[in-house]
Amino acid sequence: MGASRVGFVGLGSMGLGMARNVLGAGLPVRGYDIAAGARNALAEAGGEAVESAAEAATDVDALVLMVVDADQVRDALFGPGGAAAAMRGGATVVLCSTISPKSVAEISSEVDAAGLSLLDAPVSGGKVGADAGTLTVMAAGSEEAFESARPVLEAVSGRIHRVGDEPGLGAAYKVVHQLAAGVHLVAAAELMTLGAKAGCDPKTLFEIVSGSAGSSWMFNDRVPRMLEGDLRPRSMVDIFVKDLGLVLDTGSEVRSPLPLAAAARQMLLAASAMGYGEFDDSAVLKAYEAAAGVGNADSPAPRKPD
Amino acid sequence: MGASRVGFVGLGSMGLGMARNVLGAGLPVRGYDIAAGARNALAEAGGEAVESAAEAATDVDALVLMVVDADQVRDALFGPGGAAAAMRGGATVVLCSTISPKSVAEISSEVDAAGLSLLDAPVSGGKVGADAGTLTVMAAGSEEAFESARPVLEAVSGRIHRVGDEPGLGAAYKVVHQLAAGVHLVAAAELMTLGAKAGCDPKTLFEIVSGSAGSSWMFNDRVPRMLEGDLRPRSMVDIFVKDLGLVLDTGSEVRSPLPLAAAARQMLLAASAMGYGEFDDSAVLKAYEAAAGVGNADSPAPRKPD
């Protein structure tokens, strides 16, 4: 008997990198994505590309879901051509998408009812971590589900945290984590815009802050993209609009006021409204520049009201 | 002729550590602080403690000012017993306090008029950096002022950035830097409160976030104090109320909207209003806990309105 086959649904900027690392660990991968380009990329990496979630789920011990939101998770599992009906009894759904703790708990009940088990296993580290196999995993679920997923998690992760037994708790950690990532991203844009208007040289300012008490992982990672104006999407503005939405929903649900997360999401919404939703999330800088009148030197000043 | 004598005014949690490192570099120090305890600590460290700013400034090539705000800077230089009249012509005032770029520019003109020169040299790194001699310096001023201050800066700093010739620009970098430090501090408290209410174990949450894309220098430094409830002041809540006030004033002046910095300052103000102004700045957690109803288990729930 060879190594267990692993199924994947969702081969975007995160899922494809993860699938490649699972293949690299010697586990066969059968994967599906709605986009033909993503399926072709899996085949080129040595995986088996199939035409539905059901096919990806057939004959696997663990099925990794790395789609965007809760609707896509439900569709992949229970929609037409969905995975749940095709999986063998007792197999494990490894849910890596960032969705709300409440949605995870609901989906877990439905997965249980279908005779399967769910490991709530969101990840942090972005495309870089997915490509390098150094993601942080926050896993919650039964011992059996965790052990069944372990070979997959070890292939994609540098740090596996088993945070509890109840699916939903992994999502809670991930959503709470996103508060910091999102606020730090937006703070970086707020700082760089203020600095430019206050007469600081942007590159010197980056050098000083990134080596001082003002530094953050997001500042150090995203500001170089802001300085270069490199807006090719690695993580998109609209993904953070969604993630900070989950943060705020969770805050509402557990009654925890979140003034910084709320303000940060408004600036990402502004960037999305300006047309940058599918650009790199460092494009939140554009919303600050617009609000601060940066880059309008060629435009005539508004007329005074009559 | 021995090494140049260095004057200090302000021997608080920052100034004393800096003076010790200047002494450690072999430069004699003559220092003044309004608090007798601080003067005694300087004497114990091998410095000469004196009874006024004027005495500290007598016969020095460089006078370091490490007092709290612009009023204290003016008082130390031009008030009764002030330093400016006692300094020899051409000596350098090394202004390390965090004050506004505008105040620095104004004070610099007054210092010039007194026949002295000013190096605008705010620092980042807190008490830890001051004690270790690893502060980041953001210096602006003439070549002569910079060279005159260099032995002092090298004794206290791991990274000296000369950012320009005009006093005020160093302050601009420092104030802009404080936006990130302040927002990251408050975000850490917002995150930890949300996490506790959402069912996360605080220590596990710290471990995950501090090793992931949500990490920041402030998160990693301050959350351990929050977890231990260690509120002994290293940097105080009221210092960040002041610093984020400078950030917002600068944003108003150069017309750069700062939604995150504005929200962060409100939470620090709340902590100050609750009586934590002179406690460690990690006490901003108390404002979040109050807002989220954490720690009220023993209090009766408020009655419903009639």
Which chain pair has the greatest contact?
A-B, 69 and 70 residues
User: How confident overall, as mean pLDDT of chain A?
Assistant: 95
Uncertain spans of chain A: none
> What kind of sheet is the major sheet of chain A?
6 strands, parallel
Strand content of chain A: 5-15%
* Global structural class of chain A: alpha/beta
Number of discrete helical segments of chain A: 13
Shape of chain A: elongated
Strand order of the largest sheet of chain A: 3-2-1-4-5-6
How far the N terminus sits from the C terminus of chain A, by CA atoms, comes to: 83 Å
Q: What's the number of extended β-strand segments of chain A?
A: 9
Query: H/E order of the elements of chain A?
Result: EHEHEHEHEHEEHEHEHHHHHH
How is the quaternary structure best described?
A: homodimer
**Overall helicity of chain A:** 40-55%
What's the alpha carbon Rg of chain A, rounded to whole Å?
21 Å
Please characterize this protein's 3D structure.
The structure is a homodimer of 306-residue chains. Helices cover 53% and strands 12% of the residues of chain A. Chain A is elongated, with a radius of gyration of 21 Å. Chain A has helices spanning 15-24, 36-44, 53-57, 70-78, 101-113, 126-132, 143-156, 169-197, 202-210, 217-228, 237-254, 259-276, 284-291; strands at residues 6-9, 29-32, 48-49, 62-65, 92-95, 117-120, 123-124, 135-140, 157-164. Chain A is of the alpha/beta class. At the A-B interface, strand 9, helix 8, helix 9, helix 10 and helix 11 of A face strand 9, helix 8, helix 9, helix 10 and helix 11 of B.
